[in-house]
Amino acid sequence: MRWILMVFVLLVLSSAVIAAPVCTHVDMEWISRQAPLPPEAKIVHKKEQAALCEVVLAVDGDLIPLYAGKDFLLVGNLFRDKQFVTRKTLDSLADIAQKERTKADEKRILEEKNRQAFFQQNLSTLDDLTLFSFKPGKADKFLYMVTDPDCAHCKQLMPELEILALENHFEIKVILFPMLGPKSHGMAVQAICEKVPYEAYGKVQFQQDASGCTEADVLLKKTMAFFSQANLSFVPVVISGDGCWVVEGNDISQVKQHLGIQDDGSSGSPSPGCKPVPEN
Predict the structure, then answer these.
(1) Is residue 219 part of a domain?
(2) How confident is the model at residue 14 (pLDDT cuts 50, 70, 90)?
(3) What are φ and ψ of residue 239, in 5° steps?
């Protein structure tokens, strides 16, 4: 009888452990301790799924499914009994997903407008940050190219811009913004300290351990602070000489559209002018 009672007690305790809530400890503070997240991330769904806690986060307009245990976090999809559990959950959150995408799009558009206004207000600073330029002989206008020395998308865009510059007689003023990490910073330092001209910039074999110089320290400190004010955390960026338009990313078609150039090389209507904004 004693053994039967002990077995019964153990079974009750085991059931209590198994049945214990699995989502109680899961909140944004706990999730942030398990994985790096942007500050605007938030929980839009939380539900027990067997021994795991199913969580869906809204991050920059996307819904991200997670599965939490007591002291771990899994990112991915859950299948059970041949059912795609994660897909079913995400389908049930379609309205929330649409709202989050809309909010993210509105935020992105507002940030783009704010950056464009900031650049237009600070054109003299953009000139101060320019390291070198590509200037065809008949150039009578210009634009700015913000680039990271180690950015593959920037390297793809640069020769396409050069062709446009040669065909349409404008100058490309280049600003180095080494935001991709230590390697990028070292490459920018070398370009500045060795006074590398534009023609040699894309061919130099950069060394991460290149010695620095005061000129690089001053210029890059000013550059990083300026683009931090502009809330810019990516490259490439193309800015018109008057600051009236900005192309974020390496979409050469957008640049052509602003310049009034068709993809077939014919001329169209350039981007309309904008009202002058007083510099800060």
Answers:
(1) yes
(2) very low
(3) -125, 130
If one counts the domains in the chain, the total is 2
Q: How many other CB atoms are found less than 10 A from the CB of residue 225? A: 10
List pLDDT tens digits, range 86-102.
Answer: 999 999 999 999 999 99
- pLDDT of 133 over the 70 cut: yes
Do 127 and 240 lie in a common domain?
A: yes
Question: Other CB atoms closer than 10 Å to residue 126's CB: what's the count?
Answer: 18
User: 253 and 139 share a domain?
Assistant: yes
Residue 92 near residue 54 (C-beta atoms within 8 A): no
Find out whether the peptide bond into 236 is cis, omega within 30 degrees of 0.
yes
Q: Where in the sequence is the domain holding 235, given as residue range(s)?
A: 114-259
**Which DSSP string do the residues of 19-66 spell out, in sequence order?**
TS-SSTT-SHHHHHHHS---TT-EEEEEEEETTEEEEEEEETTEEEEE
Sign of CA dihedral 120, 250, 193, 202: negative
pLDDT reported for residue 277:
44
Do residues 180 and 150 make contact, with C-beta atoms less than 8 angstroms apart? yes
Identify the CATH number of the domain in which residue 166 sits. Answer: 3.40.30.10
Rounded CA-CA distance 211/194 in Å is: 10
Determine phi and psi for 262, rounding to 5 degrees: -80, 160
Residue 172 belongs to a domain: yes
| Residues 185-235 pLDDT 10s | 988 999 999 999 998 887 776 776 667 899 999 999 999 999 999 999 999
In angstroms, rounded to a whole number, what is the distance separating the alpha carbons of residues 253 and 259?
A: 10
